[in-house]
Structures are given as C-alpha cells and as structure tokens.
Specification:
Elements lengths: L1 H17 L2 H31 L3 H37 L3 H28 L1 H7 L7 H13 L1 H16 L3 H25 L4 H24 L16 H33 L3 H37 L3 H28 L1 H6 L6 H17 L3 H13 L3 H14 L1 H12 L1 H35 L2 E2 L6 E2 L1
Antiparallel strand pairs: 1-2
Helix pairs in contact: 2-3, 2-8, 2-11, 3-4, 3-6, 3-7, 3-10, 3-11, 4-6, 4-7, 5-6, 6-9, 7-8, 7-9, 8-9, 10-11, 10-16, 10-17, 11-12, 11-14, 11-15, 12-14, 12-15, 14-18, 15-16, 15-18, 16-18, 17-18
C-alpha cells in the first residue's frame, strides 16, 4: 500500500513540475471554475427566488450574505493556509508534513465551526441588527440566518477538505464535492420556498442540506484514500508552530473575506439610509459580481497548486510563467464580461427585481460603475493568490486588505457625505483602482528577487531538479 502511495505521489509530482504550464493550469482550472460557478450560482438562485418574496426579503439576503462572508473568512483562513502548506510540502516531497498539516487543519475547522455555531444561534437577532438589518428586514434575516448558523461547522470543514484536494492537484474531486451540493441547492430552493411554503427559511434550509451533502462527499474521498494526504488522529500536530503557520498563511484569506463581510455591513448600513430599495439593489449587484468573479477565482485556484508545488520544488521559472499566463487570460476574460455587463446592466438587475423601478435604477448605476473596474480584478485577485501559494504571508495579507478594507471602508463613510447615493454606488470601483495600484510594487519586487535566486541555483546532472 505504501509503495502504491509513493508511486502515485511521484506521478503527481512529475505532472505538477513538468507538464507545460498553460496546459497544466488550464487542466486544473476547468473543474475549479465549474465548481466555483455552480457554488456562486446557487447563491444567485437564493437571491433570485427570495426576491420574489419582496424587497425586504431581498435585502435580508444581503444582510445574511455579510454574515456568511465572516463565517467563510474563518473557513478560508484555515483551508487556504492548509492548502498552501500541503502543496509546498508535496513539492518538497515531504508526505509526513502534508499529512500533519491536513489533519491539524481539519481539527481546527471543527473547533472553530462549532464555536461560531453556538455564538450565532444564541445571538441571532442582535447580530442581524449589527449587520445592518432594518426593522422590516430583520424578521426575514433572522429566519434565514438560523439555518446558516446551524451549518457553520460543515461550511468550515468543507473549505479545508476542498483546499487540500486542490492543493494536491485533485481539482476534479473537489469539483464533484462542491458541484453536487450546489446543484442540489438549486433544485431544492424553489421546492422549499414555494412548494412547501417555507419562504425565506426554505432557501436557508436548502443551503444547509446542500452543505451537508458536499461535506459528506468530500470526506468520503479522504476515507476512501482517493487523496494523497491522509487525515488521522495520529497525524494531528502537537506543535503550535504548525497551527501558527496555517493561520499566518491563511490570514490574508481571513482578512479578505472578513473585510468583505465588514464592508458589506458598512455598505448595508450606509445604503439603508436611502431605503430598502438601496439595500436590495446593492445586495443584488454584490451577488452578481460575486458570480462574475467566481470564474476568475476558479481559474486562480487552478493556478495556486501549480505555484505552490513548483515553488516548493524551486522551479521559480514555472511559478513566473504560470502567473503571467493566468493574469493575461483573466484580464481578457473580465474585459469582455465588463463590456457586456455595462451594456445590459438594467436587464441584469431586472432579472432579480423587475417590479421595483428604484431597485433597477440604483442597481444599474452601481453595476455599470463596477464593470468599468472589472478588468483590474485579475491582477488584484491573482497577486493575492500568488503570495498565499508561496508562503509570503505579509504581502498576501496587505493586498487582501486593500480592496475592501484600507480603501473601501474609509471611502464608504466619506463619499456619501459629498455625493449622496452616488457615493455608495461608486465606492467599490474607486477602491478597486487603488487596490490595483498597490499590487504592482509587490509583484515587481517578488519576481526580481526570484530571478536573482534562480541565478544561484544549479541544475542537478540528468534531472530537471535544482540545487542551491
């Protein structure tokens, strides 16, 4: 059994370090893009069906979405930190370290998830008010949130299992787990909301069931030994340094997701001053753009294991090539999407809320503004993913903090004071432009440093491996 496992690891190592980069990234990206699109699409389906219940219900989705972003921040922090550590360990061909990081991260996800579940269920109403729920939105938000809180441990643990599989280059297995749950959610939404008459609680219950199914499928792959990494009690680390490494590398994801939640709260509170229509419009715009960016994130998730494996194997030339290929492809794709979105903005918003002209007008303006900055997302998102993959915690943390933290939070407080509702609508694209400008110096320095490092490496005779 150990011999078979070692041979499988060698085959995977050769694949990750010798396959032409464009072909490898594309092969890994296709399943991750599909899984991201399916996962994000069911979030849009929630918005679509819940919006049929009224403007206040649509606003509640935006409120709970902010809370989900905070929960996901914890899951992503552990999952991405674990994935980066696992891929670099496998690149060094250190199987024991990969098992240790994977098992320890899974335990962390269970502990953190259960803690968040208890806090959320006990303080549900207060949290919804804190997140910006108006008196008319609060009943819907509270009903929706209680099921989401109940599934927090499943959500956090699934992030870890998913990231381990992707870190190994097993993107298809990851897609099966997430994709099946997403498709199930899409089918259950109208059944629970309308057929069973559960209203907004039905949408949340559908999400909870789909998360449970996804978790079960992902866990099965590890139990059935379809993964390279093995999860076991014996592999759980007893060294604080391993947990700190996971959290340090994953801190940028926590920062990005956490700030996304905080910025959504700030957006909801600010938009709430202009009525439920403004909250609903910005909620719809946020969901649609989250869907548009999911393809880029999926593409980046195909890039990350390539970067991590090859960085661990000291193949810096392949890291650089993979980054350039992914950024160029992503920029062209987002430019095309931005042009289409700008042209059809009112039609897109009206798909979700056709009977409220105020929602369509506010949403279309904000949507067009964000379309103008959409091509910049390729560099912003992939820079963060690059530094996560190679273990550069500070760079990843800073870049993740720029878009919806360092720039967004001050702007969402300042711009509406001068421009009213227009300040709410234009805060995000201005933040994106500033975030893009912040990425460039970090990238220039990193690749210049890698080139210098490459000159110090000597190829081992008869192999493609490098030795300092």
């Amino acid at each position: 059994m150990n011999q078979e496992r070692s041979e499988a690891e060698r085959r995977q190592f050769r694949r990750m370090t010798e396959t032409p980069v464009p072909r490898l990234v594309s092969a890994l990206a296709v399943p991750t893009i599909l899984s991201m699109l399916i996962t994000t699409f069911y979030n849009m389906v929630d918005t679509f069906f819940v919006a049929k219940l009224g403007t206040s219900a649509a606003g509640a989705v935006g409120i709970v979405f902010a809370m989900m972003a905070l929960i996901q921040a914890v899951g992503f922090m552990i999952g991405v930190g674990c994935g980066s550590s696992v891929s670099r360990a496998l690149g060094r061909q250190d199987r024991e370290a990969a098992d240790r990081f994977g098992s320890s991260a899974f335990l962390m996800s269970l502990v953190f998830g259960l803690t968040l579940t208890v806090i959320g269920l006990v303080f549900n109403s207060g949290l919804m008010r804190l997140l910006g729920a108006t008196p008319t939105i609060l009943p819907y938000a509270r009903d929706y949130a209680k099921y989401i809180f109940a599934g927090t441990v499943l959500m956090c643990s699934s992030f870890v299992l998913n990231n381990i599989l992707r870190a190994e280059g097993k993107a298809v297995l990851s897609m099966v787990g997430l994709g099946f749950g997403g498709l199930l959610n899409i089918g259950l939404d109208p059944l629970f909301i309308f057929t069973f008459g559960l209203g907004i609680a039905g949408a949340a219950l559908a999400t909870l069931i789909s998360q449970a199914v996804s978790f079960g499928i992902l866990l099965y792959f590890f139990i059935a030994k379809k993964s390279i990494t093995r999860l076991s009690f014996g592999s759980i680390s007893r060294r604080w340094s391993d947990y700190l490494e996971i959290l340090k590398i994953g801190s940028s994801s926590f920062c990005r997701q956490g700030l996304a939640g905080i910025s959504t709260v700030a957006l909801n509170v600010t938009a709430g001053g202009y009525g439920d229509a403004a909250v609903a419009a910005m909620s719809i715009v946020g969901r649609v753009f989250h869907f548009l960016l999911s393809a880029l994130i999926g593409f980046g998730q195909g890039f990350q294991p390539v970067a991590g494996y090859n960085y661990g194997a000291k193949r810096f030339d392949r890291v650089r090539e993979a980054f350039r290929f992914t950024v160029k492809t992503g920029t062209v794709f987002l430019t095309c999407l931005g042009a289409l979105g700008f042209w059809f903005a009112p039609e897109v918003i009206s798909l979700f809320q056709s009977d409220d002209p105020a929602v369509i007008e506010i949403g279309a303006t904000a949507f067009r503004a964000q379309c103008l900055a959409l091509p910049l997302q390729s560099t912003i998102v992939l820079s963060n993913m690059l530094f996560q993959s190679v273990g550069k915690a500070f760079q990843a943390l800073f870049i993740s903090a720029t878009r919806q933290g360092i720039y967004f939070l001050p702007l969402i407080l300042i711009l509406p004071c001068f421009f009213g509702l227009g300040g709410v609508e234009y805060t995000q694209p201005i933040s994106d432009l500033l975030a893009f400008s912040s990425c460039v110096p970090f990238l220039v320095f990193f690749f210049r440093e890698r080139r210098q490092r490459e000159k110090q490496l000597i190829p081992l005779p008869g192999t493609s491996e490098l030795k300092a």
